[in-house]
Specification:
alpha+beta, two-stranded antiparallel ribbon, 2 helices, 4 strands, 25% helix
């Protein structure tokens, strides 16, 4: 469409209140579209490195669209049309990545105990051999 433009503001350039998540803001201005409809389509990819960095087997990626009429034709003021908000979420289930579970404390203590017992048995054997 003529007169339309989109601006992508990357997370390090724009701070948006998204909590502890990272956000990217995309502002689009669409002018003179008359009775036509507008469709927004965003494609993105998650790399294996990003999934490993996130470190969660399941999470949700959400997108929020706020459509607001700023200007009407013929000088009519927009005092009665509220902004429309729509939210889309995509559940991500990570499969095939190595899962790292914390080792329980009892396994660590058992391994230390077995190591000390083997060390004691080896010390006794060497002591008996040396006599």
């Amino acid at each position: 469409m003529q007169g339309s433009k989109c601006l992508i503001l990357l997370p390090f350039l724009f701070t948006q209140s998204c909590g502890e998540t990272k956000c990217t803001r995309i502002n689009c201005t669409i002018k003179n579209f008359g009775k036509q409809s507008v469709t927004f389509s965003i494609k993105s990819r998650l790399s294996k490195q990003a999934l490993v960095k996130i470190g969660m087997p399941e999470f949700e990626v959400t997108s929020k669209l706020i459509a607001e009429i700023i200007e009407l034709p013929y000088g009519i003021k927009n005092t009665y049309i509220p902004p429309k908000t729509s939210r889309v979420g995509t559940d991500i289930h990570v499969l095939g990545l190595p899962k790292s579970f914390p080792i329980p404390l009892w396994i660590i203590l058992l391994a230390i105990l077995i190591g000390l017992i083997l060390l004691a048995v080896l010390a006794c054997l060497l002591w008996k051999v040396s006599k």
